[in-house]
Design brief:
The chain has 6 helices and 4 strands; from the N terminus they run H-H-H-E-H-E-H-E-E-H. The protein is an alpha+beta fold and 218 residues long. The chain has a domain at 68-203: 60s Ribosomal Protein L30, Chain: A (2-Layer Sandwich), CATH 3.30.1330.60. Strands 1-4-2-3 form a 4-stranded mixed beta sheet. Strand 2 (103-110), helix 5 and strand 3 form a beta-alpha-beta unit.
């Protein structure tokens, strides 16, 4: 009887201290598991996926750009002038872009739904050109700004026929790599990341706003 009770007591103790027990389940897990939020080892995993072509590094950088930088700037009605807020956003974009000299970008221009389709296509193009021009003053080569595209009023964020500032915008996106080094990140992602920490941004320069003639678009 005593032997049976001792065995039962040991079993109960082990059960309480086991992986499913409420008192010391962390004893059976890896060191640091309580503070690991799932990001540990991602750098090694990303390198492995890139080298085996299981991950599109262009898409990966595009997601990172959209996460770390505001990719959109807005405009006043019927204008392609970059106000102070837009310029501040573009300086942040330029700081990020300078860290990756191998990456190319597209700038997409948009308008609201006010005005004719043809006028808005031209207005959206002027807005995109204003952004490209400003980025080039921040040390970004025009060769890396792959294209200037205008969607005009065809892709509104807010579907309204009224003037809407949120629709009057440009969007900067990662589009690919320059032809001289299209596979730089294939196995060399760590080199690019390291460069972010050791390279300093070039001093910003002051530029004049780009003005356009007024018309009847948004």
């Amino acid at each position: 009887m005593k032997r049976y009770m001792s065995t039962a007591l040991v079993a109960a103790t082990l059960s309480a201290c086991g992986p499913s027990g409420p008192t010391s389940s962390s004893f059976f897990t890896e060191a640091g598991s309580e503070i690991d939020q799932g990001d540990f080892g991602n750098a090694t995993m990303n390198n492995a996926l890139v080298q085996t072509r299981q991950q599109d590094y262009t898409i990966n950088l595009a997601r990172r750009f959209n996460t770390e930088v505001d990719a959109m700037v807005n405009f006043e009605f019927d204008s392609a002038i970059l106000d102070s807020l837009a310029q501040a956003t573009l300086r942040q974009q330029a700081d990020w872009i300078r860290q990756f000299p191998e990456v190319r970008f597209k700038v997409f221009g948009h308008t609201d739904l006010v005005g004719s389709a043809e006028y808005n296509r031209n207005l959206g193009l002027r807005r995109a050109q204003a952004v490209v021009g400003y980025l080039s003053t921040q040390g970004i080569s025009r060769d890396r700004l792959e294209a200037v595209v205008s969607f005009g009023a065809t892709q509104p964020l807010i579907p309204t026929p009224e003037p809407e500032r949120r629709n009057r915008r440009t969007v900067t996106e990662v589009s690919g790599f320059v032809e001289t080094s299209p596979l730089l990140l294939n196995g060399k992602y760590a080199d690019v990341i390291f460069r972010e920490y050791v390279s300093s941004a070039e001093p910003n320069t002051t530029v004049q706003d780009t003005t356009i003639t007024t018309g009847s678009g948004g």
